[in-house]
């Protein structure tokens, strides 16, 4: 079973557009973590998620690692799904677009826009 999932993920990652979207997704997740940390260290904002907020306060690098781990699990799950190519690409686009919202909101709040 694991070999089939690995092969399916490898096949999907062979496409340049998928790799680009996934790189953007992961970058957006990282940017969200960094902008959240910057916002919280300014002491003008509070984390809305109590679990992530307490982890971020206690161990910022661990919190960022957890965020990237969750993003990685989502990526592998989406790539391993047995769905049609166009639907998979649409799902990746939606996840990428949604993941860009949080850092954009964080940046706009930090800059006062």
Number of helices: 5
- Give the N-to-C terminal Cα separation: 49 Å
Strand elements, count: 0
CA-atom Rg in angstroms: 16 Å
How many structural domains can be distinguished in the coordinates?
A: 1
Poorly predicted segments: none
Strand content: under 5%
Mean pLDDT across every amino acid position: 80
Walk me through the structure.
The chain has 113 residues and is mostly helical. The protein has one domain (15-111). It contains five helices and no strands. The chain has helices at 2-13, 16-41, 50-58, 60-80, 85-111. The chain is elongated. The termini are far apart. The model has no long low-confidence stretch (mean pLDDT 80).
List keywords for this structure.
113 residues, mainly alpha, 5 helices, 0% strand, elongated
Secondary structure layout:
Elements: H1 2-13, H2 16-41, H3 50-58, H4 60-80, H5 85-111
Helix pairs in contact: 2-4, 2-5, 3-4
Structure described in brief:
The protein is mostly helical and 113 residues long.
């Amino acid at each position: 079973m694991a070999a089939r999932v690995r092969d399916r993920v490898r096949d999907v990652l062979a496409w340049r557009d998928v790799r680009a979207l996934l790189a953007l997704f992961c970058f957006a997740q990282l940017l969200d973590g960094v902008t959240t940390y910057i916002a919280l260290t300014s002491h003008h904002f509070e984390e809305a998620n109590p679990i992530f907020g307490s982890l971020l306060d206690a161990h910022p690098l661990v919190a960022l690692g957890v965020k990237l781990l969750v993003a990685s699990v989502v990526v592998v799950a989406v790539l391993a799904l047995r769905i049609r190519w166009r639907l998979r690409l649409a799902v990746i686009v939606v996840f990428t677009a949604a993941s860009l919202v949080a850092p954009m909101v964080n940046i706009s709040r930090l800059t006062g826009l």
